[in-house]
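Project standup — Tuesday

K.O.: blocked on the structure for the chain from last sprint. Re-posting the sequence here as requested.
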Amino acid sequence: MALTNEEKGRRSGKKMYEMVDGLLKEMLEDENFTKDIFKDWAKADPKGFMQIMKDRLPRVQPIDQDLKKTVISLKAMMEGLPEVDDIARELRNERYRANKAENELKSAKEQIKLYQKKLKKKGIEVG
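H.V.: unblocked you, prediction finished:
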């Protein structure tokens, strides 16, 4: 499944967001630096400071919409399956029953041929 340009852009944006997030995390871990910078920044540009803080809040968003649709589709298909604990075991059982029925049919056809030969020998014509 090829990625669309929109999805590539979304992923690239996510990588950039994670990188900036990591840098900010490192800066925030240095308490002295953080206190001074944030105080100065909040005083100098309160609107910009608040915008960055708002943008910094985590956003929950699926990365790949196509993948999400595929997962939903697979879930729907799984729900459509019969309630069977072990599908592989049931498949083996069904194959066994099919083979058994096929062998019984083959045997019955051979018996019919034998009876036809016997009847023919006795002079009885079989249609």
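K.O.: great, moving the ticket to review. The chain has a mean pLDDT of 83. The first helix runs from residue 5 to 29.
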